[in-house]
Design brief:
Elements lengths: L7 H7 L19 H11 L13 H16 L1 H7 L6 E3 L3 E4 L3 E11 L2 E10 L8 E5 L8 H6 L5 H9 L4 H7 L3 E5 L21 H11 L4 H16 L5 E11 L1 H12 L5 E5 L23 H4 L2 H6 L5 E7 L7 H17 L6 E6 L7 H18 L1
Parallel strand pairs: 5-6, 5-7, 7-8, 8-9, 9-10
Antiparallel strand pairs: 1-3, 2-3, 3-4, 4-6
Length: 383
């Protein structure tokens, strides 16, 4: 496959923006009272039992750390509880878009009573023997997120809003010749919410999902991981899909799910978490992610450095917006640098990158597609 943006490679792989955060290095992200900050830092330190050390063998560390992370998410329990359940797929009617790709609203029942709707986008004119890369793109805290990603706009205002920030990422992928799956994210999409009828959880369905998961020995991330894996099980058997070329991306909470899925499931060959990849907490103890994106006991295991390190030697692009007020630039860069050290130890420093967009909390496709093309060209060489 010929890179589509040959002149952009220089910017991406030699124009890293480390150093962006220097002017903010000493500024606290939040102003907690000193005693509060001291308390949070003390209890959040954790045992760090699977923290990566430079003296470790990467492959051995990954094998042990990955299994321990799975346990924390509750995935093994779901595998045990649902061992006899066979996911059920329902295909929808396809509509041809711009004579370029088809789009169908489908669904998959991933456990009894839980049906995940998703859009399947397939390029037109694929030959019988041809296989294409797959993009899997879960959304974050946007009840219309999977419609947005797929370009299946609910009205004209919705279309204008999404196109103004280039949020139709699955539609972009299909236009580029990829097969794309844009699924509803459990607990975040209107179609798969846990209601909060009494307002007990602040009228936040994602928090309601968290509370119900905790008493059941699950986590929302574990449930969402389960859904993504069931979609991958099915998609990897599609005759049009090259199961060696699976890209995963999502913005915000979708980026969190992307990062965890790529860390745990090695079928993901290119991981691009957008506006999400950072340390678990700021220096003051502030939690950067929504509570539904947290894994209890994670600091006893490690941190986001280890989550990123589990992707090596596959490909990882971390993207953030310079004007994203939900994250702290200095913390992002420190975390990315520590992930880069693991990729270097694995012998593949060129497969991990941090890039900054010039706006806020959104996708930056001008970085996503060149990185993906380059990853595929390197992957072809390895094969």
């Amino acid at each position: 496959m010929t890179p589509l943006y040959p002149t952009l490679w220089i910017m991406i792989f030699f124009g890293s923006s480390f150093g962006l955060a220097q002017e903010h290095d000493t500024a606290p992200f939040v102003d907690y009272p000193r005693l509060t900050s001291d308390y949070l830092q003390r209890i959040q330190a954790g045992a760090q039992s699977h923290a990566f050390k430079a003296s470790m063998d990467v492959t051995t560390w990954q094998r042990e750390a990955r299994q321990a992370l799975k346990e924390l998410t509750g995935l093994p329990r779901m595998y045990r509880d649902l061992a006899q359940f066979e996911p059920k797929l329902t295909m929808g009617e396809s509509v041809i878009v711009d004579n370029t790709f088809s789009r169908a609203l489908c669904s998959i029942e991933t456990e009894p009573g839980i049906t995940i709707p998703f859009y399947l986008l397939v390029p037109e004119n694929i030959t019988l023997t041809e296989k294409r890369p797959l993009l899997l793109c879960p959304h974050g805290h946007d009840t219309r997120g999977f419609h947005s990603y797929a370009g299946a706009y609910l009205d004209e205002d919705h279309r204008k809003e999404i196109l103004s920030r280039q949020g139709n990422i699955a539609e972009q992928a299909a236009s580029r010749g990829f097969v794309a799956i844009a699924p509803a994210t459990r607990g975040l999409a209107t179609e798969v919410l846990v209601p909060d009828p009494k307002g007990r959880h602040g009228k936040r369905p994602c928090r309601a999902q968290l509370m119900h998961c905790l008493i059941a020995g699950r986590t929302p991330l574990g449930e969402r991981l389960w859904d993504m894996q069931r979609l991958l099980d099915w998609a990897c058997k599609m005759p049009e899909v090259d199961s060696q070329k699976i890209i995963m991306t999502g913005n915000s909470g979708g980026g969190v799910l992307t990062a965890y899925t790529a860390a745990i499931d090695t079928r993901v060959t290119v991981s691009i978490p957008s506006c999400s990849f950072t340390s678990l907490t700021s220096n003051e103890g502030f939690l950067f992610h929504c509570d539904c994106c947290l894994v209890p006991g994670l600091r006893d295991w490690g941190d986001w450095r280890e989550i990123g390190g589990l992707v090596a030697p596959r490909h990882l692009l971390i993207i953030h917006g310079r004007n994203d007020e939900l994250h702290h630039a200095a913390t992002v860069e420190k975390t990315a640098k520590s992930v880069g050290a693991i990729f270097t130890k694995a012998g593949v420093p060129q497969r991990m990158q941090l890039l900054w967009g010039n706006e806020g909390h959104r996708f930056y496709p001008q970085y996503i597609w060149p990185f993906t093309e380059r990853a595929f060209s390197l992957f072809k060489t390895r094969r």
